[in-house]
Amino acid sequence: MQPSKLLGYLPPDLTHDVTHLILRTYPVKVLIGTLTRLTGALPYRLRLLNRVIDSPIGIGAGIDKDGLLISLMSRLPIGFHIVGSVTLKPRRGNPKPRMRRYPGLDAMVNAMGLPSRGVDFLKGILNNECVRWPRSKLLGVSVAGFSETEFKLLLDSLTPYMDCVDFIEINVSSPTYGGSWTEPHRLNELLNSLKGYDKLVIKLPLLSSINDEVKLIKLIINHNPFGLTIANTLSIKADLPMGYGGLSGKPLLGIVINLIKLTRRIGYGGLIIGLGGFMRGIDIIKGIKAEADLIGLVTGFAMEGPLVVYRIINELRRLQPG
Ligand SMILES: Cc1cc2nc3c(=O)[nH]c(=O)nc-3n(C[C@H](O)[C@H](O)[C@H](O)COP(=O)(O)O)c2cc1C
After folding, report:
1. Could you read off the pLDDT tens digit of each residue along the chain, which spans 322 residues?
2. Atom of ligand 1 nearest to the CA of 112
3. Are the C-beta atoms of 88 and 81 separated by less than 8 Å?
4. What's the 81 CA to ligand 1 centre distance in angstroms?
5. DSSP class of residue 193?
6. Would you kindly state where each structural domain of the chain is located, as residue ranges?
7. Which segments within the chain are labelled E, that is strand?
8. Ligand 1 center to residue 10 CA distance, Å?
9. What residue's CA is closest to ligand 1, atom 15?
10. Which atom of ligand 1 is the closest one to the Cα of 169?
Protein backbone atom coordinates (compact mmCIF):
# COMPACT_ATOMS: atom_id res chain seq x y z
CA MET A 1 0.00 0.00 0.00
CA GLN A 2 1.28 3.51 -0.83
CA PRO A 3 2.34 5.50 2.27
CA SER A 4 -0.02 8.32 1.22
CA LYS A 5 -2.98 5.83 1.26
CA LEU A 6 -1.89 4.49 4.69
CA LEU A 7 -1.92 8.03 6.08
CA GLY A 8 -5.47 8.34 4.74
CA TYR A 9 -6.67 6.03 7.55
CA LEU A 10 -5.53 8.46 10.26
CA PRO A 11 -7.64 11.43 11.38
CA PRO A 12 -7.03 14.24 8.81
CA ASP A 13 -5.50 16.66 11.34
CA LEU A 14 -3.02 14.00 12.51
CA THR A 15 -2.20 13.00 8.92
CA HIS A 16 -1.52 16.63 8.12
CA ASP A 17 0.86 17.08 11.09
CA VAL A 18 2.65 13.72 10.54
CA THR A 19 3.08 14.34 6.79
CA HIS A 20 4.51 17.78 7.53
CA LEU A 21 7.08 16.31 9.94
CA ILE A 22 8.08 13.59 7.42
CA LEU A 23 8.45 16.11 4.59
CA ARG A 24 10.89 18.18 6.64
CA THR A 25 13.36 15.28 7.10
CA TYR A 26 16.67 15.13 5.23
CA PRO A 27 16.08 11.71 3.52
CA VAL A 28 12.81 12.95 2.01
CA LYS A 29 14.54 16.07 0.65
CA VAL A 30 17.29 13.90 -0.91
CA LEU A 31 14.68 11.55 -2.40
CA ILE A 32 12.76 14.48 -3.89
CA GLY A 33 15.97 15.94 -5.33
CA THR A 34 16.73 12.58 -7.00
CA LEU A 35 13.18 12.19 -8.36
CA THR A 36 13.36 15.69 -9.84
CA ARG A 37 16.68 14.93 -11.58
CA LEU A 38 15.15 11.72 -13.01
CA THR A 39 12.06 13.63 -14.20
CA GLY A 40 14.21 15.63 -16.63
CA ALA A 41 13.24 18.84 -18.42
CA LEU A 42 9.74 20.05 -17.66
CA PRO A 43 7.01 20.88 -20.12
CA TYR A 44 5.95 24.54 -20.24
CA ARG A 45 8.93 26.53 -18.98
CA LEU A 46 7.85 30.17 -19.09
CA ARG A 47 9.18 33.72 -18.84
CA LEU A 48 7.91 35.84 -15.96
CA LEU A 49 9.41 38.81 -14.11
CA ASN A 50 12.26 38.92 -16.62
CA ARG A 51 13.45 35.39 -15.96
CA VAL A 52 12.79 31.85 -17.06
CA ILE A 53 10.59 29.96 -14.58
CA ASP A 54 10.72 26.16 -14.33
CA SER A 55 6.99 25.53 -14.63
CA PRO A 56 3.58 27.23 -14.41
CA ILE A 57 2.67 24.68 -11.70
CA GLY A 58 3.35 25.51 -8.08
CA ILE A 59 2.08 25.32 -4.52
CA GLY A 60 -0.54 27.71 -3.12
CA ALA A 61 -0.90 29.13 0.40
CA GLY A 62 -1.86 26.79 3.23
CA ILE A 63 0.56 23.89 2.73
CA ASP A 64 3.59 25.65 4.18
CA LYS A 65 2.22 28.14 6.69
CA ASP A 66 5.57 29.00 8.29
CA GLY A 67 8.16 28.40 5.56
CA LEU A 68 9.40 25.14 7.07
CA LEU A 69 9.00 23.39 3.70
CA ILE A 70 10.88 25.98 1.61
CA SER A 71 13.93 23.74 1.36
CA LEU A 72 11.82 20.78 0.16
CA MET A 73 9.93 22.95 -2.33
CA SER A 74 13.21 24.22 -3.83
CA ARG A 75 13.89 20.60 -4.92
CA LEU A 76 10.46 19.92 -6.44
CA PRO A 77 9.89 20.41 -10.19
CA ILE A 78 7.60 23.40 -9.59
CA GLY A 79 7.73 27.03 -10.73
CA PHE A 80 6.51 28.77 -7.58
CA HIS A 81 5.77 28.34 -3.91
CA ILE A 82 3.54 30.51 -1.73
CA VAL A 83 4.37 30.43 1.99
CA GLY A 84 1.70 31.34 4.57
CA SER A 85 -0.67 32.76 5.34
CA VAL A 86 1.55 34.36 7.93
CA THR A 87 0.09 36.61 10.62
CA LEU A 88 1.70 39.45 12.55
CA LYS A 89 1.76 37.62 15.89
CA PRO A 90 1.75 33.86 16.51
CA ARG A 91 -1.75 32.32 16.44
CA ARG A 92 -2.86 28.82 17.34
CA GLY A 93 -5.81 28.84 14.96
CA ASN A 94 -9.03 26.95 15.70
CA PRO A 95 -9.13 23.88 17.96
CA LYS A 96 -8.84 20.47 16.24
CA PRO A 97 -10.47 18.75 14.45
CA ARG A 98 -10.33 21.52 11.88
CA MET A 99 -10.30 19.68 8.58
CA ARG A 100 -12.23 16.93 6.81
CA ARG A 101 -11.37 15.02 3.67
CA TYR A 102 -13.84 13.83 1.07
CA PRO A 103 -11.62 11.57 -1.09
CA GLY A 104 -14.57 10.42 -3.24
CA LEU A 105 -15.11 14.04 -4.22
CA ASP A 106 -11.41 15.01 -4.38
CA ALA A 107 -12.37 17.69 -1.86
CA MET A 108 -11.59 18.95 1.63
CA VAL A 109 -13.20 21.32 4.10
CA ASN A 110 -10.92 23.16 6.50
CA ALA A 111 -11.41 25.63 9.31
CA MET A 112 -7.77 26.03 10.28
CA GLY A 113 -8.38 29.58 11.56
CA LEU A 114 -5.09 30.94 10.19
CA PRO A 115 -2.60 29.24 12.55
CA SER A 116 0.82 30.84 12.16
CA ARG A 117 4.10 31.05 14.05
CA GLY A 118 4.07 34.74 13.16
CA VAL A 119 6.10 36.89 10.80
CA ASP A 120 9.22 37.08 13.01
CA PHE A 121 9.54 33.28 12.83
CA LEU A 122 9.21 33.42 9.02
CA LYS A 123 11.88 36.12 8.81
CA GLY A 124 14.26 33.76 10.64
CA ILE A 125 13.51 31.05 8.06
CA LEU A 126 13.98 33.47 5.14
CA ASN A 127 17.36 34.55 6.58
CA ASN A 128 18.54 30.95 6.06
CA GLU A 129 16.63 29.87 2.97
CA CYS A 130 16.77 32.93 0.68
CA VAL A 131 20.38 32.30 -0.38
CA ARG A 132 19.49 28.77 -1.53
CA TRP A 133 16.14 29.51 -3.22
CA PRO A 134 16.57 28.97 -7.01
CA ARG A 135 16.15 31.95 -9.38
CA SER A 136 14.09 29.70 -11.66
CA LYS A 137 11.25 29.51 -9.12
CA LEU A 138 9.10 32.34 -7.75
CA LEU A 139 8.69 32.68 -4.00
CA GLY A 140 5.50 34.27 -2.69
CA VAL A 141 4.44 35.04 0.87
CA SER A 142 0.76 35.20 1.78
CA VAL A 143 -0.03 37.62 4.60
CA ALA A 144 -3.20 37.69 6.70
CA GLY A 145 -4.08 40.80 8.72
CA PHE A 146 -7.06 41.58 10.91
CA SER A 147 -6.76 45.35 10.39
CA GLU A 148 -5.20 47.77 7.88
CA THR A 149 -2.42 48.44 10.39
CA GLU A 150 -1.66 44.73 10.70
CA PHE A 151 -1.39 44.37 6.92
CA LYS A 152 0.96 47.37 6.75
CA LEU A 153 3.14 46.08 9.59
CA LEU A 154 3.35 42.69 7.86
CA LEU A 155 4.37 44.33 4.57
CA ASP A 156 6.91 46.56 6.33
CA SER A 157 8.53 43.58 8.05
CA LEU A 158 8.85 41.74 4.74
CA THR A 159 10.20 44.73 2.76
CA PRO A 160 13.88 43.86 3.48
CA TYR A 161 13.26 40.40 1.92
CA MET A 162 11.88 41.62 -1.40
CA ASP A 163 15.07 40.61 -3.25
CA CYS A 164 14.17 37.00 -2.51
CA VAL A 165 10.37 37.22 -2.17
CA ASP A 166 8.88 37.84 -5.62
CA PHE A 167 5.40 38.83 -4.52
CA ILE A 168 3.22 39.22 -1.45
CA GLU A 169 -0.24 37.72 -1.57
CA ILE A 170 -2.82 39.72 0.36
CA ASN A 171 -5.20 37.24 1.94
CA VAL A 172 -8.49 39.08 2.30
CA SER A 173 -10.50 35.97 1.54
CA SER A 174 -10.16 33.24 4.18
CA PRO A 175 -13.46 32.10 5.71
CA THR A 176 -11.82 32.84 9.10
CA TYR A 177 -12.37 36.58 8.50
CA GLY A 178 -16.11 35.90 8.39
CA GLY A 179 -16.42 38.03 5.25
CA SER A 180 -15.19 41.22 6.90
CA TRP A 181 -12.61 42.01 4.16
CA THR A 182 -14.98 41.18 1.34
CA GLU A 183 -17.31 44.03 2.29
CA PRO A 184 -16.61 46.32 -0.74
CA HIS A 185 -16.16 49.59 1.18
CA ARG A 186 -13.74 48.03 3.66
CA LEU A 187 -11.75 46.25 0.92
CA ASN A 188 -11.53 49.48 -1.08
CA GLU A 189 -10.14 51.33 1.95
CA LEU A 190 -7.61 48.58 2.60
CA LEU A 191 -6.41 48.57 -1.02
CA ASN A 192 -6.16 52.39 -0.96
CA SER A 193 -4.05 52.21 2.16
CA LEU A 194 -1.67 49.68 0.56
CA LYS A 195 -1.01 51.83 -2.53
CA GLY A 196 2.64 52.47 -1.70
CA TYR A 197 3.58 48.79 -1.68
CA ASP A 198 4.94 46.91 -4.68
CA LYS A 199 4.30 43.41 -6.05
CA LEU A 200 0.98 42.80 -4.30
CA VAL A 201 -1.17 39.88 -5.41
CA ILE A 202 -4.73 40.08 -4.13
CA LYS A 203 -6.38 36.76 -3.29
CA LEU A 204 -10.00 36.71 -4.36
CA PRO A 205 -12.73 35.14 -2.22
CA LEU A 206 -15.33 32.80 -3.65
CA LEU A 207 -18.69 34.37 -2.87
CA SER A 208 -22.10 32.75 -2.98
CA SER A 209 -23.42 35.55 -5.24
CA ILE A 210 -21.99 35.85 -8.77
CA ASN A 211 -23.04 39.53 -8.91
CA ASP A 212 -21.10 40.31 -5.73
CA GLU A 213 -18.13 38.32 -7.06
CA VAL A 214 -18.03 40.31 -10.31
CA LYS A 215 -18.36 43.62 -8.41
CA LEU A 216 -15.46 42.64 -6.16
CA ILE A 217 -13.27 41.60 -9.10
CA LYS A 218 -13.93 44.99 -10.76
CA LEU A 219 -13.21 46.84 -7.51
CA ILE A 220 -9.88 45.01 -7.09
CA ILE A 221 -8.85 45.47 -10.75
CA ASN A 222 -9.49 49.24 -10.40
CA HIS A 223 -6.55 49.30 -7.99
CA ASN A 224 -4.40 47.78 -10.74
CA PRO A 225 -2.66 45.21 -8.54
CA PHE A 226 0.47 43.38 -9.71
CA GLY A 227 -1.46 40.11 -9.57
CA LEU A 228 -4.62 38.26 -8.60
CA THR A 229 -4.95 34.81 -7.12
CA ILE A 230 -8.23 33.23 -8.17
CA ALA A 231 -9.38 31.97 -5.69
CA ASN A 232 -9.64 31.07 -2.01
CA THR A 233 -11.91 28.39 -0.55
CA LEU A 234 -15.72 28.61 -0.57
CA SER A 235 -17.20 29.12 2.90
CA ILE A 236 -19.81 26.45 3.67
CA LYS A 237 -21.54 24.83 6.65
CA ALA A 238 -19.42 21.91 7.79
CA ASP A 239 -19.40 18.97 10.14
CA LEU A 240 -16.61 20.54 12.22
CA PRO A 241 -16.72 22.07 15.73
CA MET A 242 -16.63 25.57 14.17
CA GLY A 243 -19.80 24.71 12.21
CA TYR A 244 -18.31 26.10 8.99
CA GLY A 245 -15.25 25.65 6.83
CA GLY A 246 -13.69 26.43 3.47
CA LEU A 247 -14.44 23.97 0.69
CA SER A 248 -11.48 23.23 -1.57
CA GLY A 249 -10.60 20.78 -4.33
CA LYS A 250 -12.40 19.47 -7.39
CA PRO A 251 -15.83 21.09 -6.80
CA LEU A 252 -14.18 24.52 -7.28
CA LEU A 253 -12.49 23.84 -10.61
CA GLY A 254 -15.27 24.91 -13.03
CA ILE A 255 -16.08 28.10 -11.07
CA VAL A 256 -12.42 29.09 -10.83
CA ILE A 257 -11.75 28.54 -14.55
CA ASN A 258 -14.77 30.68 -15.44
CA LEU A 259 -13.69 33.43 -13.04
CA ILE A 260 -10.22 33.48 -14.62
CA LYS A 261 -11.79 33.81 -18.10
CA LEU A 262 -14.13 36.54 -16.86
CA THR A 263 -11.28 38.49 -15.26
CA ARG A 264 -9.33 38.45 -18.54
CA ARG A 265 -12.46 39.44 -20.47
CA ILE A 266 -12.91 42.44 -18.15
CA GLY A 267 -9.45 43.43 -19.34
CA TYR A 268 -7.12 42.55 -16.48
CA GLY A 269 -3.62 42.09 -17.91
CA GLY A 270 -1.58 41.42 -14.74
CA LEU A 271 -0.41 38.14 -13.27
CA ILE A 272 -3.13 35.57 -12.57
CA ILE A 273 -2.52 32.59 -10.31
CA GLY A 274 -5.27 29.98 -10.65
CA LEU A 275 -6.12 28.00 -7.52
CA GLY A 276 -9.05 25.70 -6.88
CA GLY A 277 -9.44 22.07 -7.79
CA PHE A 278 -6.42 21.77 -10.10
CA MET A 279 -5.48 18.13 -9.55
CA ARG A 280 -4.83 16.56 -13.00
CA GLY A 281 -2.79 17.36 -16.09
CA ILE A 282 -5.93 18.19 -18.05
CA ASP A 283 -6.97 20.73 -15.35
CA ILE A 284 -3.66 22.54 -15.77
CA ILE A 285 -4.21 22.77 -19.55
CA LYS A 286 -7.70 24.21 -18.95
CA GLY A 287 -6.30 26.78 -16.50
CA ILE A 288 -3.59 27.91 -18.94
CA LYS A 289 -6.13 28.08 -21.80
CA ALA A 290 -8.29 30.31 -19.56
CA GLU A 291 -5.19 32.57 -19.47
CA ALA A 292 -3.92 32.01 -15.97
CA ASP A 293 -0.13 32.49 -15.85
CA LEU A 294 0.45 30.11 -12.96
CA ILE A 295 -1.58 27.26 -11.50
CA GLY A 296 -1.33 26.25 -7.84
CA LEU A 297 -2.02 22.98 -6.07
CA VAL A 298 -3.19 22.88 -2.46
CA THR A 299 -5.78 20.14 -1.89
CA GLY A 300 -3.95 17.90 -4.40
CA PHE A 301 -0.76 18.34 -2.37
CA ALA A 302 -2.58 17.90 0.96
CA MET A 303 -4.04 14.60 -0.26
CA GLU A 304 -1.11 13.09 -2.18
CA GLY A 305 1.97 14.91 -0.90
CA PRO A 306 4.81 15.98 -3.23
CA LEU A 307 4.24 13.01 -5.57
CA VAL A 308 1.20 14.84 -6.97
CA VAL A 309 3.59 17.12 -8.89
CA TYR A 310 5.35 14.21 -10.68
CA ARG A 311 1.99 12.56 -11.47
CA ILE A 312 0.67 15.76 -13.04
CA ILE A 313 3.87 16.26 -15.06
CA ASN A 314 3.58 12.70 -16.40
CA GLU A 315 -0.05 13.31 -17.31
CA LEU A 316 0.92 16.52 -19.16
CA ARG A 317 3.62 14.64 -21.07
CA ARG A 318 1.08 12.02 -22.13
CA LEU A 319 -1.46 14.69 -23.15
CA GLN A 320 1.04 16.82 -25.05
CA PRO A 321 3.99 14.60 -26.04
CA GLY A 322 7.15 16.51 -27.03
C1 LIG B 1 -5.66 22.94 4.56
C2 LIG B 1 -5.76 24.23 3.82
C3 LIG B 1 -5.21 25.38 4.37
C4 LIG B 1 -5.29 26.59 3.69
N5 LIG B 1 -4.71 27.71 4.22
C6 LIG B 1 -4.73 28.88 3.53
C7 LIG B 1 -4.08 30.03 4.04
O8 LIG B 1 -3.46 30.02 5.09
N9 LIG B 1 -4.16 31.18 3.32
C10 LIG B 1 -4.83 31.25 2.11
O11 LIG B 1 -4.86 32.31 1.48
N12 LIG B 1 -5.43 30.15 1.60
C13 LIG B 1 -5.39 28.99 2.28
N14 LIG B 1 -6.01 27.89 1.76
C15 LIG B 1 -6.72 28.01 0.46
C16 LIG B 1 -5.84 27.54 -0.70
O17 LIG B 1 -4.68 28.34 -0.85
C18 LIG B 1 -6.62 27.54 -2.02
O19 LIG B 1 -7.00 28.86 -2.32
C20 LIG B 1 -7.89 26.70 -1.99
O21 LIG B 1 -7.72 25.57 -1.18
C22 LIG B 1 -8.29 26.25 -3.39
O23 LIG B 1 -7.25 25.48 -3.99
P24 LIG B 1 -7.27 23.86 -3.97
O25 LIG B 1 -8.60 23.43 -4.45
O26 LIG B 1 -6.13 23.44 -4.83
O27 LIG B 1 -7.05 23.46 -2.55
C28 LIG B 1 -5.94 26.66 2.43
C29 LIG B 1 -6.51 25.50 1.89
C30 LIG B 1 -6.42 24.30 2.56
C31 LIG B 1 -7.03 23.07 1.95
Report:
1. 455 555 556 778 887 888 888 888 888 888 988 888 888 766 678 888 889 999 999 999 999 999 999 999 999 999 999 999 999 999 999 999 999 999 889 999 999 999 999 999 999 999 999 999 999 999 999 999 999 999 999 999 999 999 999 999 999 998 888 878 999 999 999 999 999 999 999 999 999 899 999 999 999 999 999 999 999 999 999 889 889 999 999 999 999 999 999 999 999 999 999 999 999 999 999 999 999 999 999 999 999 999 999 999 999 988 876 5
2. 3
3. no
4. 13
5. H
6. 3-319
7. 46-48, 51-53, 57-59, 80-86, 99-102, 107-110, 138-143, 167-171, 200-203, 227-230, 234-237, 244-249, 271-275, 294-297
8. 21
9. 232
10. 11
Instruction: Say whether domain 3-319 belongs to CATH 3.30.413.10.
Output: no
Closest-CA residue, ligand 1 atom 28, reads 62
Please state the atom number of ligand 1 nearest to the C-alpha of residue 107. Answer: 25
Alpha-carbon torsion, ordered 87, 175, 297, 249, to 10 deg? 160
Ligand 1 centroid vs 49 CA: distance in angstroms?
Answer: 24
Question: To test ligand 1's pocket by mutation, which of 248, 294, 295, 308 has the most ligand atoms within 8 angstroms of CB?
Answer: 248
